[in-house]
Design a protein that fits this description.
The chain is an alpha+beta fold. Helices cover 33% and strands 29% of the residues. It is built from 5 helices and 9 strands. A hairpin with a 5-residue loop joins β8 and β9.
């Protein structure tokens, strides 16, 4: 099976898992931390992860294309549009120029776009971006763990996060430029 087939299968599994999580009677996902005692693993602490408007956005750290670690918390004090995407996704590719336009027009006003590629290699992403002049940071979620953490069910999916780190809007499909601008104006209070 080739890389593309494996990636499609992985995304399918992620989407099915996301659908299962989202349909569990609206209960938040429970993540348990392991604690080792006498060489036995016990679960002694539960953490609830709420991915919804008005709740804090979970922090994450991913590598950018330059190999540097970038965390969402690095941008505290700025409005952040986190966009989950992939090079094989036609709707993702279609909205990229508008994301770049929004970023260029607003980057001097405490705004950043973080384009989080899901499940692809650095080489595949660089090959796709070759010859394109996107200025926003591109991060690599190679194993899909952050998209799972954010309960992404399909691509593209975008989260608008305010300066305090709270989720202010979620869009689970492609956005047009006017929709992006409206989302940003909503978080800015315009």
């Amino acid at each position: 099976m080739n890389k593309k087939g494996i990636m499609i299968m992985l995304l399918g599994i992620v989407m099915v898992a996301g659908f299962f999580v989202m349909t569990k009677a609206n209960k938040p996902e429970i993540v348990q931390e392991k604690n080792s005692q006498n060489n036995m693993e016990e679960y002694d602490q539960e953490k609830t992860i709420d991915i919804e408007v008005g709740k804090p956005a979970p922090d994450f750290t991913l590598e950018n294309l330059q190999g540097e670690s970038v965390s969402l918390s690095d941008f505290r004090g700025k409005n952040v549009l986190v966009n989950f995407w992939a090079t094989w996704c036609p709707y993702c590719v279609k909205e990229m120029p508008d994301l770049n336009k929004l970023y260029i027009e607003n980057k001097e006003n405490d705004f950043v776009v973080l384009a989080v590629d899901v499940g692809e290699s650095k080489e595949d992403v660089e090959k796709y971006l070759e010859g394109k002049s996107y200025e926003f940071p591109v991060l690599l979620d190679k194993d899909g763990s952050i998209s799972i953490k954010y309960m992404v069910r399909g691509l593209p999916t975008s989260f608008m996060i305010d300066k305090e780190g709270n989720i202010r809007a979620i869009k689970m499909s492609m956005m047009t430029y006017p929709e992006m601008k409206e989302m940003l104006e909503g978080v800015e209070g315009k």
